[in-house]
Design brief:
The complex is a heterodimer of chains A (295) and B (281). By secondary structure, chain A is mostly helical. Chain A has helices at residues 12-38, 56-63, 65-96, 103-115, 118-129, 135-144, 154-182, 186-194, 199-210, 212-228, 231-237, 249-258, 263-287, and strands at 41-43, 50-52. Chain B is mainly α and 281 residues long. Classes of the chains: A mainly alpha (295), B mainly alpha (281). At the A-B interface, helix 1, helix 3, helix 4, helix 5 and helix 7 of A face helix 1, helix 4, helix 5, helix 6 and helix 9 of B.
């Protein structure tokens, strides 16, 4: 089999790979390594002078209540967006899995929010949730006679970015749940029915367990999305406020670097995020990769 | 709703299912529908209570105001250019490197392949600080090159092109080699013509990834004339302190229209691209 490869052209593969590797080395590997390097230095704002401080930046970070708060907020944000997002997506995927004429049309509609950018998603939701002209508050007032200050109250601002993130990422989750549902053979359901199982029992005891590889994969992907992709949503909707309630790690990192101009501390935060991504990925390959089948 | 036998259904059940789907579709699209509705309402109507769910008449002043407020003509052109260059770069480099991994045997092949895939763990957000310093030191801050260079190669595109090239039967290459077809002619005259659908799918996904990118453009571009579409959304908020929702929504809708057009034209490729890769940058 190997004989069929272009073996005699010994330089050609390196030639083919070189443009890709130039980009990857210069703009992906080098900055990542540099993050670790920068995180060991202290640098005055706009200053060229760097002082080696070892792991002091990390020690400062983990003693800083604002950073610990940001970590806690991010963890809660991840847990809530994933739980709410996956439950909704699974229910919608089950509905979209029906063998109905025109179902493809609905599927396309449900995927639309996923194609939209976080920035636009944030903008649309800021309008919907604004207390003066937004329809959500009007409907809440009509139905329950309550007025919510969505973006000026810590709790509701946090809820607002969760809602926007869940809405935006739902399409991605639905695509995978649909693929997972379609991979379950009809015969499994038929034999369960013959055994007298009801719809809810079948869903709980057959569908959900058989989907667990998909769910596992989606949890991993959503951890990474919620951490990184929500930057645009937060920047448009809340800018980390009020009172740092939506100041999740990625937004805090951005502010540290580009508003407070503290590259050392910002680089240390990047390295912590990098460690998180690597841990999640290793976890994924160790426990999930072999069980996940799609397409 | 939880009927898992997936049809065939009675006519009543069909109608009920359609009703449920229509209601949910409306809820899913609600932010976009209300955004469009408000963008066509004059200020007085927007701030009247109760809020109107539909505009009284067709009213496009907000679109003209938003267009001029953030010079959308320039911003949209910038975004189209940047997204096209990034898309072409990723496809070009992805085809070449994918071909190297699928059809050649060479030293360190496994290691180099791993080195490509490893970059999936290095999202923009974790390297933005040193990358910004690096690009600035190269003198490319606030420039188009500085904007697009870091995006030109991608592990996903390389990986997916390799996977696709591997599916092309070995017998084709065998006969090409016997006929004395060199590696580059084989790529351009035989492999690429067999890759239309895959290239189209990757083109759509890569175009949208750059169109929707926000953090890097926000950091590297600070000249208003050079900004991209997503920054335009932020500018709409910044330049209307009284929150003129009609203008903000009109601008937002204009930024999202190209996304929707590309998505709807190519949604088959898009969904297939997502489902087969499952990796987003």
């Amino acid at each position: 089999m190997q004989k069929l490869n272009y073996r005699s052209h010994s330089l050609v593969p390196y030639l083919l790979l070189s443009p890709t590797f130039i980009v990857l080395l210069l703009f992906l590997y080098w900055p990542s390594i540099n993050s670790v390097f920068l995180s060991l230095f202290k640098q005055a704002p706009f200053g060229r002078k760097r002082i080696f401080v070892g792991i002091q930046n990390y020690i400062n970070l983990f003693q800083d209540p604002a950073y610990l708060n940001s970590l806690l907020r991010s963890t809660l944000f991840i847990i809530f967006t994933i739980t709410i997002g996956l439950v909704f997506s699974l229910l919608l995927a089950v509905i979209l899995n029906q063998n109905l004429k025109g179902i493809k049309f609905y599927r396309v509609i449900f995927f639309i929010p996923y194609a939209i950018s976080p920035t636009v998603a944030g903008s649309l939701w800021v309008f919907l949730l604004n207390p003066v002209a937004g329809q959500v508050n009007y409907l809440l007032d009509l139905a329950f006679n309550i007025q919510v200050n969505w973006l000026t109250n810590s709790f509701f601002a946090f809820l607002a970015i969760i809602i926007a993130t869940v809405w935006k990422n739902m399409g991605f989750n639905i695509i995978f749940f649909l693929a997972g549902l379609q991979a379950i053979p009809d015969s499994v359901y038929e034999s369960a029915k013959i055994d007298g199982a009801g719809a809810i029992t079948i869903f709980k005891d057959i569908t959900i367990p058989l989907l667990s590889p998909t769910t596992f994969y989606l949890i991993i992907m959503n951890i990474i999305f919620s951490v990184f992709e929500s930057f645009g949503i937060v920047d448009i909707m809340t800018q980390g406020g009020p009172a740092d309630s939506t100041n999740i790690v990625i937004y805090k990192l951005y502010r540290e670097m580009f508003i407070n101009f503290r590259p050392g501390i910002a680089a240390a935060q990047s390295v912590i995020l990098l460690a998180l991504v690597i841990i999640v990925t290793i976890f994924h390959f160790k426990y999930g990769a072999n069980n996940v089948h799609y397409q | 709703m939880f009927d898992l036998n997936r049809g065939p259904y009675s006519i009543y059940k069909k109608i009920a299912l359609h009703l449920v789907l229509i209601i949910i579709s409306f809820i899913v699209l609600m932010p976009i529908i209300f955004g469009i509705s408000v963008s066509m309402q004059p200020r007085a109507q927007i701030f009247s209570y109760p809020p109107s769910f539909l505009p009284d008449r067709l009213y496009f002043d907000n679109y003209i105001k938003a267009w001029n407020l953030v010079s959308l003509d320039k911003i949209l052109v910038n975004s189209i250019l940047a997204s096209s260059v990034v898309m072409l770069g990723k496809l070009g480099l992805g085809v070449l490197s994918g071909y190297a991994f699928s059809h050649f045997e060479f030293k360190y092949k496994k290691f180099l392949f791993f080195a490509v895939l490893f970059t999936l763990m290095l999202p923009m957000q974790v390297r933005v600080v040193p990358l910004f310093e690096f690009i600035s030191r190269l003198g490319l801050g606030n420039s188009f090159s500085g904007l697009v260079l870091p995006f030109l190669a991608s592990a996903t595109t390389t990986f997916l092109m390799r996977q696709h090239f591997l599916t092309i039967p070995k017998s084709i290459m065998e006969s090409a080699q016997i006929d004395g077809c060199g590696p580059f002619r084989f790529l351009f005259q035989i492999l690429l013509p067999l890759s239309g659908a895959n290239l189209a799918g990757l083109a759509v996904v890569n175009f949208l990834v750059m169109w929707n990118a926000y953090l890097w453009p926000l950091i590297i571009i600070n000249d208003d004339q050079k900004k991209l579409a997503q920054q335009g959304v932020k500018m709409l908020f910044a330049s209307s302190s009284e929150r003129d929702w009609g203008i903000i929504m009109a601008g937002t809708i204009m930024v999202v229209i190209p996304t929707l057009i590309v998505f709807l034209l190519a949604q088959k490729f898009f969904v297939k691209g997502i489902a087969t890769q499952g990796i987003k940058e």
